[in-house]
Design a protein that fits this description.
- The complex is a heterodimer of chains A (236) and B (315).
- By secondary structure, chain A is mainly α.
- Chain A has one domain.
- Helix content of chain A is 83%, strand content 0%.
- Chain B has two domains: 220 residues, Rossmann fold (3-Layer(aba) Sandwich); 71 residues, Alpha-Beta Plaits (2-Layer Sandwich), CATH 3.30.70.1340.
- Chain B is 37% helix and 29% strand.
- Chain B has twelve helices and 14 strands.
- In chain B, the strands form three sheets. Chain B has a six-stranded mixed beta sheet, sandwiched between helices. In chain B, strands 2-1-4-5 form a four-stranded antiparallel beta sheet.
- In chain B, strand 1 and strand 2 form a beta hairpin.
- In chain B, helix 3 packs across helix 4 and helix 8 packs across helix 11.
- Chain B is elongated, with a radius of gyration of 25 Å.
- Classes of the chains: A mainly alpha (236), B alpha/beta (315).
- At the A-B interface, helix 1 and helix 5 of A face helix 2 and helix 3 of B.
């Protein structure tokens, strides 16, 4: 129950602040533009480039959505209210994560117009990669948000929170390059941590349970760490 | 109801509280008094489970703030120094949110919001956005938040800050009313507030309790010898000062010359000697225009106990 109270409150404040609207409109503008340009130049009815671009743009946009989640509570001292109420850090983190995740799902939902356009105008349209691609995008979003939420618990400065989560996400994005750079076990290990490499498999239409588990565990680990940071604030 | 035993709190190397022992009975209003930075807020944060103590134990309603933090938090209403408000919410949706996280059943929630809003004078502001409210109204919303779930224990950190004099009077009488079925700790650095609302006062300075007593007792103890403020019009060529100075145990200070009279503060070692001195002066034709006893106020107590120079001199 208390998770939903937090979630509702977060969703409310998302739509009261201009940030959500700005992120939504710029994301849709960029994705729409890319979809149009790629479709016009290639004339191939595939959604792979658009989903790839969407994931990249969301990596840039999600820190903006997550940066205020806990930082703002710290800045405005409302964290004192939450931590002296009979709610647990789990309720707080879970509620905030769910609110941001719902926002992300709405954003994803708005891009469904593109597969619908393709399905309407093309023959032999392969829907398999669309399903797997969207599943990948949703899992990727959970990963983005959890890392961003963790970064937001670290500081009361929203800019720092955004920068930390942005840096973290880019790092996990480019870990895949290590595979080619080292060509040994270490490179392989780093490559396995790459968000992009795993996401790319979804885009090719492959739903590997290992990849699904990776994204779920990745999300849970950052949420767990966020919870611990929130708890540890009391010990300082 | 509230117990603190040997509470010490360090922030890194800075000692904010040193060996605090405190006990508050059910239904009592305890005033925490002290200059800024004395440790009032830290003490309150420990009681509300927001901060852990470095050593010592504290309990609220029989539950340890560390071991049974959840049970303690269920029984607390807390108004922090900065009212914890979400500026984009309306007062009603904010209080509704508080009701949710404070485990108030939804049937009761509407009723309590209505009741608390009426008590605090927020009924007309319920649909306003908090960010557009004035400081005084924000403080009221903060107070409403602390009262909403009708907690056994109320901890109020400077509850009247930012209010205008009328509001201050209203809030004080509200706090007094609440004491009938709540236990209240409030902190302040406004002295009259303590004398008007609190049964007992704890004066904290530099992290240590320097006095715990009722307001009346503190005032009584602050005054070493009985004193009067006197305006005296001496008779012509009367040497009134010699009369006073030669009187045993009399001491005058703060002498001010008025157009045809003198104002001064008279201290007597024994108050029963006052009549004798009075008749000695008036027998020679002096006229007393004003005689008023000087009582030490809480200000005097406060200043005496918290100003470091004086304490060093005394040591």
């Amino acid at each position: 129950m208390k998770i939903f109270a937090i979630m509702k409150k977060e969703l409310q404040s998302f739509f009261f602040s201009p940030i959500a609207y700005i992120v939504f409109s710029s994301f849709l503008a960029i994705v729409g533009y890319l979809f149009w340009v790629i479709l016009m130049t290639s004339s191939i009815a595939t959604l792979e480039p658009m989903l790839y671009n969407a994931a990249f743009i969301l990596m840039l946009a999600s820190p903006v959505l997550t940066m205020r989640l806990v930082s703002e509570e710290k800045k405005s001292k409302t964290i004192e209210l939450l931590l002296t109420s009979p709610i647990s850090p789990f309720d707080i983190i879970a509620g905030k994560f769910l609110a941001c995740f719902i926002l992300y799902l709405v954003l994803i939902l708005l891009t469904l117009q593109y597969p619908l356009i393709l399905a309407h105008y093309s023959q032999d349209f392969d829907v398999g990669p669309i399903y797997s691609g969207y599943l990948g995008l949703i899992l990727l979003g959970a990963a983005y948000i959890s890392l961003g939420l963790f970064a937001s618990t670290l500081t009361e400065n929203q800019i720092i929170a955004a920068m930390v989560s942005f840096g973290g996400l880019v790092l996990f994005w480019i870990f895949g390059w290590a595979r080619h750079a080292f060509e040994n076990d270490f490179g392989e290990l780093l490559g396995n941590l790459s968000l992009f490499d795993r996401y790319a498999e979804f885009l090719r239409g492959i739903i590997d349970s290992g990849n699904v588990i990776f994204f779920v565990v990745f999300t849970l680990v950052w949420l767990f760490l966020a919870m611990r940071v929130l708890e540890s604030d009391r010990w300082r | 109801m509230i117990e603190m035993q040997n509470i010490t709190k360090y922030y890194d190397n800075f000692r904010a509280l040193n060996n605090i022992n405190l006990s508050v009975e059910k239904g009592e209003i305890l005033g925490l008094l002290g200059p800024n930075g004395a440790g009032k807020t830290t003490a309150m944060r420990i009681l509300t489970c927001f901060l852990p103590a470095s050593s010592g134990t504290a309990s609220v309603a029989g539950f340890d703030v560390f071991e049974d933090s959840l049970e303690v938090r269920r029984r607390l209403g807390y108004l922090p120094e900065t009212p914890p408000l979400y500026h984009e919410m309306t007062v009603r949706s904010y209080l509704n949110f508080i009701g949710e996280i404070r485990e108030l059943p939804w049937r009761l929630r509407e009723e309590r919001i209505g009741y608390v809003a009426e008590r605090i004078g927020l009924t007309e502001s319920l649909s306003r956005v908090i960010g557009t409210l004035s400081k005084g109204y924000r403080q009221r919303v903060g107070l409403a938040q602390a009262l909403l779930h009708n907690p056994e224990v109320l901890i109020l950190d400077e509850p009247t800050v930012g209010l205008d004099p009328n509001q201050i009077i209203e809030i004080r009488s509200l706090v007094k009313d609440l004491a009938r079925d709540h236990t209240i700790i409030l902190s302040t650095h406004i002295l009259p507030e303590v004398s008007m609302t609190c049964g007992r006062v704890v004066i904290i300075n530099e992290g240590e309790i320097v006095a715990v007593d009722s307001v009346a007792n503190l005032e009584k103890n602050a005054q070493a010898v009985p004193a009067w403020k006197i305006i005296l019009k001496p008779a012509k060529e009367q040497n009134w000062r010699d009369t006073v100075d030669s009187f045993s145990g009399a001491h005058i200070s703060e002498i001010r010359e008025l157009s045809d009279a003198f104002e001064f503060k008279l201290e007597l070692e024994r108050s029963e000697n006052f009549d004798e001195l009075f008749s000695k002066l008036s027998a020679k034709g002096a006229v007393f225009r004003e005689i008023s006893p000087v009582r030490a106020t809480l200000e005097d107590v406060f200043l005496r106990l918290t100003s470091t120079e004086e304490r060093k001199e005394a040591a």
